[in-house]
Write a structure and sequence with these properties.
The complex is a heterotrimer. In chain B, 73% of the residues lie in helices and 3% in strands. By secondary structure, chain B is mainly alpha-helical. Chain B starts with a helix and ends in a 17-residue tail after the last helix. The chains are: A alpha/beta, B mainly alpha, C mainly alpha. Chains in contact: A-B, A-C, B-C. Chains B and C meet through helix 4, helix 9 and helix 11 of B and helix 6, helix 11, helix 13 and helix 14 of C.
């Protein structure tokens, strides 16, 4: 039986961006239906419209055969639809039970805490989801938090479950457990919609899959009847160049960065880096693989000087820089491209002012004034080399597209001609053309003798670009070696914490 | 000596009551995520309104009621502008304090032609005790304030309303996703908080001073904010904090009197030094305490829906 | 496209200023009607008398331009300096007293004036430093500390004046600035306007100004860039305190020459500075213009009282309403986008 029918859904934002061009979508009970597409294809937007979070500009929605028009998620929840996001919608400072209580109390004001507890325990028993009710949410690992979200949906009698990129914060092992739970729920005749951009996932668990591309529905197919390559082509509408030409045998030079036995603690006193050892040579790209949250960000920040280790050393060109502040490190030749465009760029400033953000020291002239003439030159140089559009240096960064912002961020750090480049998620949220561009620039830098530490959750990217790979798990380097020595399975196991 | 102690305790209660009510109101506000610097302004408006409406109607109860309505309206305006129009909450508070101060003086002048004070009203009588021959007064509102504090603590910690507020203040996105109307909850909290603050202003006129002057509120609204931070947004701690701050102000009143009679001479300039005490003490206390407190995560940030 | 966005920004600013002023005056009109005064005559007197005398206008605007700058600079760094009041007081007092003492000791007018200005600036800077330090190093909320310091300084200065520096003849005034040490009034204005221009140049073009603006727009990015946020906060607060202190000293040395024992001449000027900073959009040149405008209104308010009996505190109300109206910038974004489509 069809539980969801969406016809002609169109969404146009006030600033003119067309997110959906008239999409049809339907799902049945007792199926896991994948919604596949690249970043920005419109999959999340479509589901948020179904969930009542966003209002469609046009289109009709039927749930369980009846026309509906949800004005907010509360209406959708009442009809049994639940959406589980990437970034969870739990209150992190409250316990699991309090979150569940709140979630139920908003629909059923008369319910008591004890009733909620009883119901929760019953469901935990039935579904075999392991959840500690009395723990504060922010102390739980991502996998458990996600289970709480699912429990929250079930306890509110959801019949339709929408999961948005659920495995992006899970290890392969946790992802497998999730799929088992989903299969169990499918047996109970639930409708499950899985939003994802991962082809392997689609093949692993879905019954049918709908592919979206740039706001248009490309098609709906039975998973068993297509190959991954066919799905990929539907996603991008061209044969994706999966392997870039790597420049022929460059011999890496001397060691330019060494991390010795580094230990870093976070603000709550928990170790986030546990005795990490690492070595980067000139002209070498070291890829750091691992699920987000296993210490990669902290490692990058420690190298840049944004985090202080309490044990261990960082050595740049045989100089101990462990105690140096970020600006001194930048002066010595370290460049850092953070994973967040939000924190790497100032959106209310123009391209010129952003170009000097991490190198003001080299632009200071007399009396402490910045040489803005030279700054303009630098900005123009970045614009030209990285093909940034619009090419006017006085444009405010917030008016640039995501891809152009990323190019600016990467370009700014690369034109400094660093000795060591630490780059985190260089192509996230970037369109395909800019992605290729940035990756090519990284390879170019490599031939110029720069040592590069590449952190990315995109395994394909890591494999393509790196000479050596290290895998991080829970703050440790759990595996390392030359790229050719790894298989995808081995990487997946390491990422999930299973070594040899 | 006994007289000194009795005076000290009484004065502490009087001062503490104001600071407590202000803090309790601000806690409700800020738990939901809305900053309200305008406590002083609410004190000014409600203290003045108590006198104004009591004289206009001849009935203290009506005066108090209308003063609370005015406080609620002030909260409503602050809430509408900061929640729905996304105004910067601190700036709104500052502007509001200015408006309240100016407005009350304008009203004073146009109603009674006096720039500095309003006429007196019949004050409330507190509870009288006689201990060992000495008379001891506990203000009615002190009891009210403590009751409100305990009730607030109970509601925030033990009921679902407390959870709803906390969700709006810590993670409004999650609250919205659970189906809570964050805007409406915050607005309600702001109005309710303003009414509780209003009780403090009512007390100033109705039970303490009996009239309104420019010096009635004397920055107590800001001391209430300091108390709120000191209490870590916990109403029970706010009671303790209020007694602490109240004690300092009481000391600044009682001590010079005691010293003057002991030393046998009059203070003129030195009174100013004593008046400084509560404010300096507040700075010191809050400096010692500030690092250990934890404020609502989404405090002061307008919630933006898509 | 950038031309379009710059144009839209200017339109947005004009709309914000205009609408806020209109709202402020509208409320004033309502209050006037309610209290039985004639709005039109009040407003016409306000503007005609307030802005008639440019010399008076310039003199009166000295302290509020200073406190306006004192609010704006930390605001650009993301801080609220509500302590302009205390910084003004301490600057005025220190300036007055050191000029008086140095002149009596040396008989040198220029030396004593300069000492007065410098010491007032330093005192204000130290006062600002206290707030900045507590905020940066101890995470103490700067609004509460500033208000406490306002009251503390108020009583402190009063104590010092009443106990040690009362004028022998007029017992309700402090000692007077010696006649030859007084600064010609227009010079005072030129000085503070010069400081405003200097502030603008530093904010726009120097590396300190750049780091302040980055810290205010995106503190996380500032940390990433290697800027020391604590240093920026403390520096910004100290500089702004120094400017407020200078304003106080200038005001005493060039306009009022003495502080009375209720401090009525300087009371409230710090808070006014907040409104002026906002009205001037935290731009130093805008602050000068806003300072002149608001001083004119205030001065006009006194004339209004003389002619019609309407209380001058009305201007406080107007300014407060303007401050509130200016805070709701989202409203203006809405208005601008409606304009674009309609």
């Amino acid at each position: 039986m069809k539980t969801i029918e969406m016809h002609g859904i169109r969404k146009i934002y006030p600033d003119g961006v067309i997110a959906l061009h008239g999409v049809d979508f339907e799902a049945e009970e007792g199926e896991i239906h994948g919604l596949l597409g690249e970043n920005g294809a419109g999959k999340t937007t479509l589901m948020r419209i179904l969930y009542g979070e966003i209002r469609p500009t046009e289109g009709e929605i039927k749930v369980l055969g009846r026309r509906v028009r949800y004005r907010n998620p509360r209406d959708a929840i009442k009809q049994g639809i639940a959406m589980i996001y990437q970034h969870f919608s739990l209150v992190p400072t409250m316990t699991v039970l309090d979150n569940l209580y709140l979630a139920l109390a908003t629909i059923n004001p008369r319910i008591t805490r004890n009733e909620v507890e009883a119901r929760a325990k019953k469901l935990i028993g039935e579904t075999r989801l392991k959840i500690p009710l009395d723990k504060v949410v922010e102390e739980l690992p991502a996998g458990v938090q996600q289970r709480v979200e699912i429990l929250k949906a079930l306890i509110r009698d959801a019949r339709i479950l929408i999961l948005d990129e659920p495995t992006s914060v899970l290890t392969p092992l946790e992802a497998e457990e999730l799929f088992q739970s989903l299969k169990k729920l499918k047996e109970k005749r639930m409708t499950i919609i899985l939003i994802t951009h991962k082809l392997r996932e689609v093949k692993a668990i879905t019954d049918r899959v709908t592919v979206l591309r740039r706001g248009i529905k490309v098609g709906t197919v039975r998973t068993s009847e297509v190959t991954e390559a066919q799905l990929a082509r539907m996603m991008v509408a061209r044969d994706v160049e999966l392997v870039l030409e790597k420049p022929p045998g460059i011999q890496p030079g001397r060691e330019v960065l060494r991390i010795e036995y580094l230990w870093v603690r976070n603000s709550e006193g928990v170790d986030v880096l546990k005795g990490v050892n690492l070595s980067v040579r000139e002209g070498e790209i070291i890829g750091v693989a691992g699920v987000q949250g296993n210490g990669q960000t902290e490692l990058a920040e420690a190298i840049a000087g944004l985090r202080r280790p309490y044990r261990g050393r960082i050595i740049l060109d045989s100089k101990d820089i462990t105690m140096l502040d970020p600006m001194s490190r930048y002066k010595l030749g370290i460049s850092y491209v953070p994973e967040s465009r939000r924190n790497g760029l100032i959106h209310e400033m123009n391209l010129i002012e952003n170009s000097v953000l991490t190198s003001t020291y080299s632009y200071i002239g007399r009396y402490g004034f910045i040489d803005w003439g030279r700054a303009v030159e630098t900005a123009l140089k970045i614009i030209k080399e990285y093909d940034i559009n619009p090419p006017n240096p006085y444009t405010m960064v917030k008016n640039l597209s995501g891809g152009n912002q990323q190019k600016l961020l990467v370009g700014r750090e690369l034109v400094k001609k660093p000795r060591v480049l630490v780059v985190s998620e260089p192509t996230q949220g970037v369109d395909v053309a800019s992605t290729e561009f940035i990756r090519r620039k990284l390879l170019e830098l490599k031939t110029r003798g720069v040592g590069i530490l590449l952190i990315s959750t995109d395994l394909d990217e890591v494999i393509q670009l790196s000479d050596r790979i290290i895998v991080m798990y829970e703050g440790r380097v759990i595996g390392e070696g030359r790229t050719e020595e790894f298989t995808l399975e081995k990487l997946g196991l390491l990422m999930g914490g299973i070594s040899a | 000596m006994i007289d000194f102690l009795i005076a000290l305790i009484e004065n502490t209660l009087y001062s503490a009551t104001v600071v407590l009510l202000g803090a309790l109101g601000a806690i409700i506000n800020e738990k939901s995520g809305v900053v309200n610097i305008g406590v002083e302004g609410v004190f000014i408006l409600s203290a003045f309104s108590t006198v104004y409406f009591t004289l206009a109607s001849g009935n203290l109860a009506i005066g108090i009621l209308l003063a609370l309505v005015v406080s609620g309206l002030a909260g409503l305006i602050h809430g509408l502008i900061s929640i729905y129009l996304r105004g910067d909450q601190v700036i709104i508070g500052v502007g509001f304090n200015m408006v309240a101060a100016g407005l009350t003086i304008v009203m004073m002048v146009t109603t009674w032609g006096d720039y500095s004070q309003t006429p007196q009203i019949q004050k409330l009588q507190g509870l009288q005790f006689t201990i060992g021959g000495k008379v001891f007064i506990i203000p009615l509102f002190s009891i009210v304030a403590i009751l409100v504090g305990l009730a607030e603590w109970f509601i925030l910690e033990k009921t679902k309303y407390g959870l709803v507020l906390k969700a709006c203040g810590d993670e409004p996105r999650a609250a919205e996703a659970m189906g809570i109307n964050v805007f409406r909850t915050r607005l309600l909290a702001t109005v309710l908080g303003a009414v509780v603050m209003g009780l403090g202003g009512v007390f100033l006129s109705a039970e303490w001073f009996g009239n309104y002057t420019k010096a009635t509120t004397a920055g107590r609204g800001f001391i209430a904010l300091a108390n709120e931070a000191f209490s870590n947004w916990n109403p029970a701690m706010a009671i303790a904090g209020a007694l602490l701050f109240g004690f300092f102000e009481a000391l600044s009143i009682s001590l010079p009197i005691q010293l003057q009679s002991m030393l046998g001479r009059q203070f003129t300039a030195e009174t100013y030094l004593f008046k400084m005490m509560p404010y300096v003490a507040t700075i010191i206390v809050i400096t010692m305490v500030m690092k250990k407190i934890r404020m609502p995560r989404a405090l002061g940030k307008p919630y933006i829906k898509e | 496209m950038p031309e379009a966005s710059n144009y839209m920004r200017i339109v947005k600013v004009i709309i914000e200023e205009a609408v806020s002023l209109l709202v402020g005056f509208a409320v004033a009109v309502i209050i006037l009607l309610f209290s039985g005064y004639e709005p039109l005559s009040v407003i016409s007197i306000l503007f005609s008398e307030g802005f008639r005398n440019t010399e008076v206008l310039m003199k009166q605007s000295i302290p509020v331009i200073a406190t306006g700058l004192a609010f704006s600079i930390p605001a650009l760094a993301g801080l609220f300096n509500i302590g302009g009041e205390s910084q003004l007081y301490i600057g005025a007092f220190t300036g007055l007293v050191s000029t008086y003492i140095i002149y009596n000791a040396t008989g040198q007018p220029v030396l004593s004036s300069v000492t007065g200005l410098v010491s007032g600036t330093l005192a204000g800077g130290f006062w600002g430093f206290i707030i900045g330090y507590l905020r940066a190093r101890r995470s103490v909320n700067e609004v509460v500390v500033a208000i406490m310091m306002n009251w503390t300084t108020y009583y402190l200065v009063l104590y010092l004046i009443v106990s040690r520096f009362t004028d022998p003849i007029y017992s309700h005034m402090s000692v007077f600035v010696p006649a030859s040490s007084r600064i010609p009034d227009v010079l005072g204005f030129i000085m503070i306007a010069g400081v405003a221009v200097l502030t603008y140049i530093v904010l726009r073009y120097s590396s300190l100004g750049y780091s302040i603006r980055v810290a205010g727009l995106n503190p996380k990015a500032a940390v990433y860039a290697g800027f020391n946020l604590e240093k920026i906060f403390i520096t910004a607060m100290s500089i702004s305190g120094a400017i407020a202190g200078l304003g106080g000293a200038l005001f005493v040395l060039s306009v009022i020459y003495s502080i009375d024992t209720t401090m009525s001449a300087i009371y409230g000027l710090g808070f006014l500075g907040i409104g002026i900073g906002l009205l001037g959009r935290n731009n130093p040149i805008g602050v000068v213009l806003a300072g002149l405008f608001i001083s004119g209104l205030q001065f006009g308010g006194q004339w209004v009282e003389l002619r019609t009996g309407a209380p001058p505190y009305l201007t406080d109300v107007v300014i407060g309403i303007i401050v509130i109206a200016l805070s709701a910038t989202y409203t203006y974004e809405l208005l601008v986008s409606k304009l674009r489509r309609g």
